[in-house]
Inverse folding.
């Protein structure tokens, strides 16, 4: 109760800062206030196009994200087990991490359909996060427990089920949560540049071009709310799994 | 018979066993005694096949099934007492040995157990795994005197050959063990 009130007060403070700054600037074209943004958002959510656009963006980002998590786990396991594979692939991981996301977006626009660009970019941003986090977690598995498993003749499947998965789960969860934020932001950025049909990023671009700043803020608010909602869902799912096991 | 001859072993820059020659019978209970640093754990680890000797030979251990109670409990923290034991054997064996070790609440996780309880669960796991040789590194660590006695009576018959490391002679006597004074054998 106290925590809820605390959050509410903090939220109210920042809304007031936003509202005050907007009023001080005095130009809605430059900085619309929270009231304009909320009005624009209510107008948008009443249309079917809003839900279709949001759904399509969600689907693209989720596809890229899930592929990124899956490939990240597989690559981490492969590189952990096979030293030469690690040596061979680690430069790719470094390049992906170091290259600006906009460079990738522009580059892949030449190669794949623009509807697939956000999928690929989300995938590419999540991949090294999960790959690195998971590989480090695999390296950190307790050597004493591994020796115990060897002594008691655990089969490879048993080792994975009872040692590697529980040992690496916290790191994987942390990587998944971090990756989700990156997938969202990079996926939307890819949509802004690639501008596929039915995409939040395309709507952001159009709102900017047509100087509809309230719409721009409303779409941005949608992205933030969805990102927060998905992160909460992911954490809740993890907690529920923990609860079921305990 | 397990025969060790002229065995040297240890860790980089730290020799532990020096020219050790020793014979273990096929059956019975043998207690290794020595002050800390004389290689009780090292010898048990060599017998378990977890540590290679630097030189010397060992024979008579090939093909034997060995259960090892580590000096640390090494329980899986995310599994209950029952599951920690069941994982190396089956449900019936797990129940039998947990009962023998007087573990009543088998649904507890290691972080919920006392040190003595964790030790007994680790013992139950080694006993449930079974084998021709049972290697026990300080099996009575954290147990009170009365419990030591009851636990020792259950362990004694658990494998044809039991080799354990102990700190005091009373623990060796509880197990009815032949004592090998490891420090005196390496002089």
């Amino acid at each position: 109760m106290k925590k809820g009130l605390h959050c509410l007060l903090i939220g109210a403070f920042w809304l007031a800062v936003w509202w005050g700054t907007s009023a001080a600037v005095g130009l809605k074209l430059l900085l619309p206030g929270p009231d304009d943004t909320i009005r624009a958002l209510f107008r948008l959510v009443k249309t079917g196009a809003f839900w279709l656009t949001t759904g399509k963006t969600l689907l693209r980002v989720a596809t890229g994200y899930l592929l990124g998590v899956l490939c990240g786990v597989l690559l981490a396991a492969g590189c952990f087990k096979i030293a030469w594979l690690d040596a061979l692939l680690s430069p790719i991981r470094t390049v992906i991490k170091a290259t600006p996301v906009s460079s990738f977006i522009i580059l892949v626009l030449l190669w794949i359909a623009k509807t697939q660009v956000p999928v690929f970019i989300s995938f590419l941003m999540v991949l090294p996060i999960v790959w690195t986090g998971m590989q480090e977690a695999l390296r950190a598995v307790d050597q004493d427990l591994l020796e115990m498993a060897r002594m008691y003749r655990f089969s490879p499947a048993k080792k994975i089920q009872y040692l590697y998965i529980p040992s690496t789960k916290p790191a994987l969860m942390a990587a998944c949560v971090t990756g989700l934020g990156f997938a969202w932001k990079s996926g939307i950025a890819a949509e802004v540049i690639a501008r596929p049909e039915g995409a939040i990023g395309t709507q952001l671009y159009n709102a900017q071009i047509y100087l509809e700043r309230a719409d721009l803020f409303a779409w941005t608010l949608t992205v933030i709310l969805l990102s927060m909602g998905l992160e909460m869902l992911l954490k809740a799912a993890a907690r529920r799994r923990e609860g079921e096991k305990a | 018979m397990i025969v060790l001859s002229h065995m040297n072993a240890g860790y980089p820059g730290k020799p532990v066993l020096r020219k050790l020659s020793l014979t273990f019978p096929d059956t019975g209970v043998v207690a290794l005694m020595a002050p800390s640093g004389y290689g009780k754990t090292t010898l048990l680890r060599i017998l378990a096949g977890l540590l290679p000797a630097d030189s010397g030979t060992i024979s008579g251990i090939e093909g034997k099934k060995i259960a090892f109670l580590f000096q640390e409990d090494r329980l899986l923290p995310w599994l209950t007492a029952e599951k920690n034991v069941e994982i190396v054997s089956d449900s019936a064996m797990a129940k039998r040995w947990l009962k023998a070790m007087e573990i009543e609440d088998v649904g507890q996780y290691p972080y919920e157990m006392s040190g003595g309880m964790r030790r007994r669960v680790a013992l139950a796991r080694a006993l449930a795994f079974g084998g021709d040789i049972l290697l026990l590194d300080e099996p009575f660590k954290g147990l009170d005197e009365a419990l030591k006695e009851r636990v020792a009576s259950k362990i004694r018959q658990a494998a044809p050959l039991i080799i354990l490391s102990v700190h005091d002679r009373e623990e060796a006597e509880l197990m009815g063990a032949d004592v090998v004074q490891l420090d005196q054998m390496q002089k």
About this structure: Chain A touches chain B at residues 144-145, 147-148, 150-154, 158, 162-163, 166, 245 (CB under 8 Å). The mean pLDDT of chain A is 91.
